[in-house]
Amino acid sequence: MFQAGTRGFTRKVGRFAERRLGVLRRTPAPSDVEAARPTAILHRTPWTPPVAKSAEGMYINLEDGRRLLDAVGGAAVACLGNSHPKVLQAMKDQIDKVSYVYNMQLSNQPAEALANKLIATSKGAFEMCGFVCGGTEAMESVIKLGKQYYADIGQPKRVNYIARQLSFHGNSLSTLSLAHHPTRRAAYVDFLDTTHFHHVSPAYAKRFQKPDESVEQYVERLRQELEDKFVALGPDTVIGFVAETVVGATTGVVPAPKGYFKAMKSVCDKYGALFILDEVMSGMGRMGTLHAWESFGDNEAPDIQAVAKGLGGGYAPIGAILMSKKVAEGITKGSGLWKHGHTYQGQPLGTATALAVQEVIESENLLENVRKQGAYLESLLETGLRGPNALAAPYTFDIRGGGGFWGIEFDFTNATNLDFGKEPFAMRVQARAMKHSLVVMAMTGGSNIEGTKGNHLMLSPAYIVTKQEIEKIAALLIQSIEEVLQEAAV
Questions:
Q1: What's the pTM?
Q2: What is the DSSP string of 336-398?
């Protein structure tokens, strides 16, 4: 994911290419970029990023002496921050026991324990699970699992997936095909599968609900569009409908309108297809409930669900695929095994680490803190960005989210008195926040289907965040926004 140039990010010789949401564009280097340092890493950015040396809680210490407050958990990953003593101890203990076994030869105790915990805490939604090493792997596995399920129950004609525009499900070729993130797909468009992956409109009411539509009418229009797509493809050829419960970086924390997921699931049920949710970013507590669908998905449990980021909290690369009793039984009574796997699948160190992360979240009652501090953050953002004296009020299009996941979208369509030059507003704010030792995430292109308009910022602090840290995050972000606006005034 693109992050803007900041103080400490190093300058390439002359002009450099700004990679924004996967598209290579030539722009002037940000003003805060410093002299390049040698590196043997081929980085994802056209500059060489600064080096983290150590971290504790929500604070990251850099080699150059700066101390950053991480308000976004990397990419909504570090749900416990860094160096939680219980997680570190679990990792050390597991290394002393067994660090690796191969999943086609042996299972292991922490993998079995983590699987049991994920099923036990699902309130009956899930029957079995499988492990992978991250979000893209999880969604790739979901694609294969859905196809295997219908092969195992004797419906091999089902070969099509339906997902949504302005979505993101991973960076492999199959997950890029499943999703419809225009700019991230652009470099690989000739390689993408357009035969088996199809798309319908996003559930993005703030942008796409018609002025004369009620919420119910908007939801019904989207439901009908999905049903029309089923019919056009042939209902008996559709494997499932796939959606992010809360859209993450693509559009900036966009929940669906009330009733949407219930309506989408009804179409899947009508035609015998699977209802599949991607909670790689929004799941495992991020929205204030263990599963985002419990609070932001009409409490409609999916047939298959992917989780990752908040599962291991950044302490280990791990993801999981959760499956309902229907799917689990279809496979166990069919082929009897999961026709998919990786070398590090269910690795004992990773599963022991994730188990410890989940136990800390539960034992320290952190989901309650997520809800409490999230509500406080929302109130500070509303006052600071849309209050009567807020400098940003004319340009703050939306503040949205819930729990520990918040997005702020800006709109400068009618702003004739501002000039941001060639670097988008959101990227400038991210750079300025970094100068103030605050890490946030900025993205562009989420405001239209083509992915060519829009500026949004995201916050996803660790579940351990305190009231004082919430106040500091809000104050520094609002300060950064106002400084950029003042400097752009013409």
A1: 0.92
A2: SS-S---TTTT-HHHHHHHHHHHHHHHHTTHHHHHHHHHHHHHHHHHHHHHSTT-TTGGGEEE
